[in-house]
Design brief:
CATH class of the largest domain in chain B: Alpha Beta
Number of strands of chain B: 24
Number of helices of chain A: 12
Distance between the termini of chain B: 40 Å
Order of helices and strands of chain A: HHEHEHEHEEHEHEHEHEHEHEHEE
Structural class of chain B: alpha/beta
Strand content of chain B: 25-35%
Helix content of chain A: 40-55%
Number of strands of chain A: 13
CATH architecture of the largest domain in chain A: 3-Layer(aba) Sandwich
Oligomer: heterotrimer
CATH topology of the largest domain in chain A: Rossmann fold
Radius of gyration of chain B: 24 Å
Structural class of chain A: alpha/beta
Strand content of chain A: 15-25%
Mean pLDDT of chain A: 84
Radius of gyration of chain A: 24 Å
Number of domains of chain A: 2
CATH class of the largest domain in chain A: Alpha Beta
Shape of chain B: globular
Largest sheet of chain A: 7 strands, mixed
Low-confidence stretches of chain A: 16-51
Low-confidence stretches of chain B: none
Chain lengths: ~375, ~500, ~325
C-alpha cells in the first residue's frame, strides 16, 4: 500500500518538476504557439482571399540533433508565411533512429496532408513508406538527402545540396592559400592535408569527402605534384589517380572517428594536426569541424597564414565555426543552405499541390569567410 | 535469581494465513540464561523479532525495566539495551572486524570516521572477552567461529542488558562453543540477562538456568533446567518421546559390494590424499572438527571443486568426475550443508525443485510435463512425509526439515544411488531431525548408500555404520561403529592439532 | 594525513593499473612519434574530465551492487538545459552551471527513490531514467543543439577552469588539479566517512546493514544522488571542453565511465572498489580513445580493441577470485 502511494506521489512530483522546468523554457514555447496562431490566422485570411494557399504539408527532418535543422525549419516557416500554407515539422531525436523516423512518416501519411517533405535518415528503409504515400496519392518532395531508386510516382522532386560539388568547393578555396607550400613539396619533404569525416557510411559525407579529395588531387596534379591518400580504408579505396605514399609529394590523410562523438572527432583531428608536415585540415561537417577547433584548443596550430601554421576550414555553420573564422583560426567554411532547402521544399510542394510541374533543384554549397559572412545571401544560412 | 527485567505478555501476531504467535508469555530475569526452545516454526524467532521491533505485534504488552515499551526498529531496541545475536551471521565481509563491530555507530572526528579509535576500542573489547581477533582483519577472512565471536562481542559492546542468542552454536566447533560458554558465564556475573535459542539439548543442560518451551505459536511452559531431564523438555516440545540411543553395531554385511571407492584424492590444502570405500546399504559417517576438510572432500569428489589427483571407482569401474554433471551421471547426489545457497531454489515450488536435477525426465518434447512433475513430486512428498500443503507451495515457506526433504526428493527423482548428506540436520529441530534419520535408514534399507558428513557427535554415533575421521585435510582414521566412542573419534579428530 | 593515506597506501590493483598506464604510454609513444608530445597529454586529460567525473559518481552505485546507466544521456541533457538557459534565456553562466548540476541531483534523487525506496532493480530503473533524460533535454530546449559561450567570449571564462591558455600560447590543463582534488575528496568520503562506509556495507550485505540500525534507504539513495551530482558536474565539464552539445547524444558515455571504474577494480557485484582505482581506470580508457587513432588503428578496430581490453580487465578479477 505504502509503496503504491509513493509511486503515485513520485509520479506527481515528476510531472510537477517537469512542468516547472518547462516553465523555465516557457518563453520559447510561447513563441512557437504565437507562431502557430499567426499561421492559422494567415490561413484564414488566405481562404477568404486567393485560392492559392490553404494547403497543409507534413515535413520530416533527419533529427533535431544539429542546429543545422533549425535553419531548415526557419526556411520552412518563411515559405509557409509567404504562401499562406501550413506545415508541421517533425523528426526523431537522433539521426540513427531510423525506425522512429519511419513511424513518423507513416503517421504523416495517415494525416493525409497535401504533400510531404522528407529528409530521410536511411534512404533504403523509407521505400515502403514511399510506396504507401504513392498509393495514398500524397506527393513527396525530398530535401537535403536524395533517394536514388525511389518507387515510381512517389518522389516528385528533390531539393538537395550537390555534396560532391560542395566538397570540391572547399578544396578550391583552400588550394590557393596553400599553393606555394604544395609547389615547394618534394618526395623527401612531403606536405600533408588532413580531412576529418564523421563516418564512412553516410552517402552525403562520402560524396563530400570524395568531392574534396578528387578536386584536391586534380589541383595538385595541375602543379605537377603526385598525391597519396592514407587513413580510413573507404576513402583510400575510393580515391583514383593516386600513387603510393613513398612516391607522393602530397599526402591527403583521412580520419574517421570510431563513433560520431565530439571527443573522438577532435582526437582524429589532433592526430593529423600533431604531425609536423601537416599544412591544412578540413572538417567535412559541423561535428568534425568543431572537432578541429577543439583540437586546436590544445595545439594552437591553426592560422590563416600558411607560414605560421595549419590552414583550417570547415563545413556548415554553428557558433563555434563562425567564431573560428572571425578569430582567424579558419580561413572559411562551406555552408549548405538548409534555410533555402527548407524554403524550396515548401515552394515545390505548393507547386505540386497546385498542379504545376516541378523538377529537381540542386543546391550549391557556398564558401563563406570573414569577407562575406555578413552578406545578405549568406548570413541567414549561418545558424548558431 | 535476579529480578525480572523483561516481561512479554499476551503477545499475539498473525501473518496472512498463519497465526504465528498466539498469546505468548515470556519472562527474563537479570543474570540468568533462559533457554527458548521449540521446533522450527514454533514461533521463537518471531517472538524475538517482535521484541526487537523487526515485527510489530498485533496485541499484548512488553514491559522492560518496569516500563511498557514498543521498539520501532532494531536500533531503538539496541539503544535500550536489547541486542540480538543472529542465527545467520550478519557480517559485512568486505569490511574489517572493527568496522563491523561499530557499524551504524562509528566514532567520528568531525566528519571523518575515526578508524584508529575503533580499532583500539575493538581490541579492548576482545581483551575483556578473552578473544584473540585482530580488529583490522577483513571479516571474510575469519573462520565462522571467529565471526560468531565478533557478533557476540558486538552485542556486548552495546552495553546490552538483554542479549538474545539465536542458535549461536550452529556453526561452531566444540572448542569454540566452550569459549562462547565462558563468555556467557562471564556475562551472567555482570547481571546481564540472556535468551538462548538452540536445538542442542546438551548445551541447554550445560549453560541455561530455565527453559521456556513453545509449540505451534503458543506458550507451553517454563522449567528450571536443573530440575528437569532432556526427555521432559522434548516431551513438551513435541508431545512424544523420540530420543534414540547410539547404534551399537553395523547391519551391513562385511562382504557387501563396494559401490564407491576413492583413492588418493587430492584437492588443495583441505583434501590431502584421502582414500575410502563405501559399501552398498551403508551409512559412512565423516567426522571431524570444523575445517577438517570433510565438505571439501565431498565437493572434490562430486566435481564441484577442481581436484589435483586421485582415482574414483563406481561399482568397480573407474570413472572421471570433473563436473557435478559427471557425478550425477555416475549416480551420485550431493545434499549441501548450505541448503539455501546450493540445495534448493527457495522461490520455486516443491514440484519444480523435485524435477530440477533431472529435467530430461520431465520433458514432453520441448515442454515441461507439468503433470508428471507434480505427480512425481507428490509421490515423494508422501514417501518422505514432507509437510507441505501442496506440491505447488513455494519452498521458502517450508520449515528447514521439510526443505531438506525436498532436496532428498530431488536426488531420489534423479535415481541417485550414492547420496552425500552434508550436515543433514543443521538448523533442523529435534522432531524433524528424527524424521530425517528415519528417512536415511529407509534409504539404505532400500539399497542406497550414504556418505554423511556431520559435526554432531551424537548424530555420527547414532547413524553411521563406519566412521571416517578427518583432521586438517587428512584422513586420520576409520572406525567401525562397534568400536567407536565419542572419545576415540575426538582423539582422531584432534590428533594433529595437539 | 588524508593525502598520505590516499597515495601512500595504493592497493595492488591500483599499482597494476598504473603499470598498464605506463605500458600503454610507452607502447603508443613507441608506435607513434607524434603521440609523445605535450598537446597529446593535454588531449588525454581533456577527454578524461567528464568521464572521470561520471566515474567518481557511478562508483558509489556500483559499490552498493547496483549501477547507474542514466549518467551518459543525463550529462548531455543537463548540459543542454544549462546551455539553453544561458544562450537563449540570458541567465548568467553561473546560474546555468548550477542548473546543470541541480538537474543531475534531481535525477539522482529520482533514481534513488526508484531503487532504494521502491526497490526497483537498479539496472532497470536507471535504464528507464536513461531514456527519460535522453528525451528530457531536447524536449525542454526545443530539440536543438546548444553551444555554451566560447572560451574567447567574456562569459566563457568557466572553460578556463579546465584549460587555461597563457599569454604566450601555452595551454595549461589546470582541470586536472580540479579533478585530482575531487578524486581526493571522494576517496576520503568513500574510505573515511559514514556515507562511504555504509555504501560499502550495503554492497556487502544490505540486510545485515539494515539490522545494524543503519538507515539503509537513505544511504542507498544517497549513492544515486552522488552519481547524479557528478553526472551534473560532468555535464559542465563536457560543455566546457567541447563546442556544441548535441541532443540525442550521450548514450554510451556511461559505458566509458563504468568500464573505467571496473578496470580500476570496482567490483560489478558490489562491496569492493576505490575512487583512485576508478580514476586510473578512466585514464586507461581515455589513453585508448586518444592513443589508438594515433597509432593508426582505424575506427572499427579501435572498438574491437577497446572491448578486448575491457574483457581482459574483468578476467583478471575473475581469475583472482578463483584463486
Amino acid at each position: 500500500m505504502k509503496k503504491k502511494m509513493l509511486a503515485i506521489l513520485l509520479g506527481a512530483v515528476m510531472v510537477l518538476s517537469l512542468a516547472a522546468c518547462g516553465g523555465g523554457g516557457g518563453d520559447a514555447k510561447d513563441d512557437t504557439k504565437k507562431d502557430d496562431t499567426k499561421k492559422e490566422e494567415t490561413k484564414k485570411d488566405d481562404e477568404g482571399g486567393s485560392k492559392d494557399g490553404g494547403y497543409h504539408f507534413e515535413v520530416i527532418v533527419k533529427s533535431f540533433q544539429s542546429t543545422y535543422w533549425q535553419a531548415a525549419v526557419i526556411g520552412i516557416d518563411n515559405a509557409c508565411e509567404e504562401l499562406g500554407v501550413t506545415a508541421n515539422a517533425n523528426g526523431p531525436a537522433n539521426e540513427s533512429d531510423i525506425a522512429d523516423q519511419i513511424q513518423m512518416i507513416d503517421s504523416a501519411i495517415e494525416k493525409k496532408p497535401d504533400g510531404i517533405g522528407l529528409a530521410a535518415c536511411d534512404t533504403n528503409s523509407v521505400m515502403d513508406s514511399l510506396t504507401k504515400a504513392a498509393e495514398a496519392g500524397i506527393p513527396v518532395v525530398c530535401f537535403d538527402t536524395g533517394i536514388d531508386n525511389a518507387p515510381e510516382g512517389s518522389v516528385y522532386a528533390t531539393v538537395a545540396t550537390d555534396n560532391e560539388a560542395a566538397g570540391a568547393c572547399a578544396a578550391e578555396n583552400m588550394f590557393p592559400v596553400i599553393e606555394d607550400k604544395i609547389k615547394a613539396a618534394t618526395v623527401d619533404a612531403k606536405v600533408r592535408i588532413g580531412e576529418v569525416n564523421q563516418d564512412a557510411t553516410g552517402l552525403n559525407i562520402q560524396q563530400r569527402g570524395n568531392g574534396f579529395i578528387v578536386k584536391m588531387i586534380e589541383l595538385c596534379n595541375g602543379v605537377d605534384k603526385k598525391v597519396a591518400v592514407v587513413g580510413n580504408e573507404f576513402y583510400v579505396n575510393a580515391a583514383e589517380g593516386t600513387v603510393a605514399e613513398s612516391e607522393a609529394e602530397v599526402i591527403i590523410e583521412v580520419g574517421v572517428p570510431a563513433q560520431t562523438t565530439v571527443d573522438l572527432a577532435s582526437t582524429e583531428a589532433q592526430k593529423i594536426m600533431a604531425k609536423d608536415d601537416t599544412i591544412a585540415i578540413w572538417g567535412s561537417n559541423q561535428t568534425t569541424a568543431e572537432g578541429v577547433i577543439t583540437a586546436n584548443g590544445t595545439l594552437n596550430k591553426l592560422s590563416t597564414d600558411p607560414s605560421k601554421g595549419i590552414i583550417g576550414a570547415g563545413f556548415d555553420a554553428g557558433t563555434p565555426q563562425k567564431e573560428a573564422i572571425k578569430n582567424g583560426q579558419f580561413i572559411g567554411s562551406v555552408t549548405q543552405s538548409p534555410l533555402m532547402m527548407g524554403y524550396e521544399c515548401i515552394q515545390t510542394l505548393n507547386k505540386i499541390a497546385k498542379g504545376e510541374s516541378v523538377s529537381d533543384i540542386p543546391m550549391d554549397g557556398y564558401w563563406y569567410d570573414m569577407e562575406n559572412m555578413e552578406d545578405d545571401n549568406i548570413k541567414p544560412n549561418l545558424y548558431d | 535469581m535476579g529480578e525480572v527485567i523483561l516481561t512479554m505478555k499476551d503477545i499475539d501476531k498473525s501473518f496472512p494465513g498463519v497465526h504465528a504467535l498466539d498469546h505468548v508469555d515470556l519472562e527474563v530475569r537479570k543474570g540468568e540464561v533462559l533457554a527458548l526452545m521449540g521446533e522450527n516454526g514454533a514461533g521463537k524467532s518471531t517472538l524475538m523479532k517482535v521484541l526487537t521491533g523487526i515485527y510489530k505485534k498485533d496485541s499484548g504488552t512488553i514491559t522492560y525495566e518496569g516500563k511498557e515499551v514498543e521498539f520501532k526498529n532494531t536500533r531503538e531496541a539496541q539503544d535500550a539495551g536489547i541486542v540480538i545475536v543472529h542465527q545467520e551471521l550478519n557480517m559485512l565481509g568486505h569490511l574489517t572486524v572493527a568496522q563491523n563491530l561499530f557499524i551504524g555507530r562509528e566514532f567520528k572526528k568531525g566528519i571523518r570516521i575515526d578508524d584508529k579509535k575503533m580499532n583500539e576500542e575493538a581490541k579492548k573489547l576482545f581483551d575483556r572477552l578473552n578473544v584473540n581477533i585482530d580488529p583490522k582483519e577483513t571479516m571474510s577472512n575469519l573462520t565462522v567461529g571467529k565471526q560468531q565471536m565478533c557478533e557476540i562481542a558486538k552485542a556486548v559492546s552495546f552495553d546490552a542488558k538483554v542479549i538474545i542468542f539465536d542458535e549461536p552454536s550452529a556453526a561452531l566447533t566444540e572448542s569454540e562453543i566452550e569459549e562462547m560458554f565462558k563468555i556467557i558465564r562471564d556475562l551472567k556475573k555482570k547481571d546481564i540477562a540472556m535468551v538462548y535459542i538452540s536445538h542442542r539439548m546438551d548445551e541447554i543442560k550445560v549453560i541455561t538456568d530455565r527453559v521456556t518451551v513453545m509449540r505451534d505459536g503458543t506458550y507451553v511452559g517454563t522449567l528450571i533446567t536443573e530440575e528437569c531431564t532432556k526427555e521432559d523438555i522434548i516431551n513438551m516440545m513435541v508431545g512424544r518421546v523420540i530420543y534414540e540411543d547410539p547404534k551399537t553395531e553395523s547391519a551391513v554385511p562385511k562382504d557387501a559390494p563396494v559401490v564407491l571407492k576413492v583413492e588418493h584424492l587430492n584437492a588443495g590444502k583441505m583434501v590431502q590424499d584421502v582414500s575410502f570405500e563405501l559399501r552398498k546399504g551403508e551409512i559412512l559417517g565423516f567426522s571431524g572438527l570444523m575445517g577438517a576438510g570433510r565438505t571439501e572432500t565431498a565437493r572434490a569428489l562430486f566435481g564441484a571443486d577442481p581436484k589435483e589427483g586421485g582415482d574414483i571407482y563406481v561399482n568397480g569401474t573407474k570413472v572421471t568426475i570433473n563436473t557435478p554433471q559427471d557425478a550425477v551421471d555416475c549416480g551420485l547426489g550431493y545434499l549441501s550443508e548450505d541448503r539455501k545457497r546450493y540445495g534448493i531454489v527457495v522461490q520455486k515450488t516443491v514440484a519444480q525443485n523435485t524435477s530440477m536435477a533431472f529435467m530430461k525426465n520431465f520433458m514432453k518434447g520441448i515442454f515441461i510435463d507439468k503433470k508428471k512433475e507434480k505427480d512425481v513430486a507428490r509421490e515423494y512428498v508422501d514417501a518422505l512425509a514432507t509437510k507441505t500443503p501442496s506440491v505447488e507451495q513455494l519452498v521458502v515457506n517450508l520449515s528447514g526439515g521439510n526443505q531438506q526433504k525436498v532436496v532428498v526428493a530431488k536426488w531420489l527423482a534423479r535415481n541417485s544411488d550414492i547420496l552425500i548428506f552434508d550436515e543433514p540436520t543443521r538448523g533442523i529441530d529435534v522432531g524433524a531431525k528424527n524424521e530425517i534419520y528415519k528417512l536415511m535408514n529407509k534409504l539404505v534399507a532400500e539399497g542406497k548408500s550414504i556418505i554423511m558428513i556431520s559435526s554432531e557427535m551424537t548424530e555420527i554415533l547414532r547413524m553411521s555404520d563406519r566412521i571416517v575421521v578427518m583432521c586438517e585435510g587428512k584422513k586420520t582414521g576409520e572406525l567401525d561403529i562397534a568400536e567407536a566412542t565419542q572419545e576415540s573419534i575426538m582423539n582422531l579428530a584432534t590428533r594433529e592439532i595437539a | 594525513m588524508v593525502k598520505k593515506r590516499a597515495f601512500g597506501k595504493l592497493k595492488g590493483r591500483e599499482v597494476m593499473v598504473l603499470g598498464i598506464i605506463a605500458a600503454m604510454i610507452i607502447l603508443f609513444s613507441f608506435l607513434s612519434p607524434t603521440f609523445r608530445t605535450y598537446p597529446t597529454l593535454v588531449s588525454v586529460l581533456d577527454n578524461s574530465y567528464y568521464i572521470t567525473l561520471m566515474a567518481l559518481g557511478v562508483t558509489f552505485p556500483l559499490i552498493t551492487g547496483g549501477v547507474d546507466l542514466s549518467i551518459g544521456t543525463g550529462l548531455v541533457s543537463y548540459a543542454l538545459i544549462g546551455g539553453y538557459l544561458i544562450v537563449h534565456q540570458g541567465v548568467p553562466v553561473g546560474v546555468g552551471i548550477l542548473a546543470c548540476i541541480g538537474m543531475g541531483v534531481l535525477i539522482g534523487v529520482f533514481n534513488g527513490v526508484l531503487v532504494a525506496v521502491m526497490d526497483l532493480p537498479p539496472f532497470l530503473a536507471t535504464l528507464c531514467t536513461c531514456m527519460i533524460t535522453r528525451g528530457l533535454g531536447p524536449a525542454l530546449c526545443g530539440g536543438f543543439g546548444v553551444s555554451w559561450p566560447s572560451a574567447l567570449s567574456e562569459s566563457g571564462a568557466f572553460r578556463k577552469i579546465f584549460k587555461f591558455t597563457t599569454a604566450n600560447g601555452t595551454v595549461v590543463p589546470i582541470g586536472i588539479i580540479f579533478i585530482v582534488v575531487l578524486v581526493l575528496i571522494m576517496s576520503f568520503v568513500l574510505n573515511h566517512t559514514r556515507v562511504g562506509r555504509y555504501t560499502i556495507a550495503i554492497g556487502s550485505n544490505k540486510e545485515a546493514t539494515r539490522l545494524a540500525g543503519v538507515n539503509v534507504k537513505f544511504y542507498h539513495m544517497l549513492a544515486y544522488i552522488i552519481s547524479g551530482l557528478f553526472a551534473g558536474l560532468a555535464g559542465v565539464a563536457y560543455a566546457a571542453t567541447y563546442a556544441t552539445i548535441y541532443p540525442g547524444s550521450g548514450a554510451g558515455f556511461e559505458l566509458d565511465a563504468i568500464g573505467g571504474a571496473i578496470v580500476g577494480g570496482v567490483s560489478a557485484s558490489g562491496g569492493v572498489g576505490s575512487i583512485i582505482g576508478a580514476f586510473l581506470g578512466v585514464i586507461v580508457i581515455c589513453l585508448m580513445k586518444v592513443g589508438l587513432p594515433f597509432i593508426g588503428l582505424q575506427a572499427n578496430w579501435q572498438q574491437i580493441f577497446t572491448g578486448l581490453v575491457l574483457i581482459a580487465a574483468v578476467l583478471i578479477d575473475v581469475v583472482k577470485k578463483k584463486k
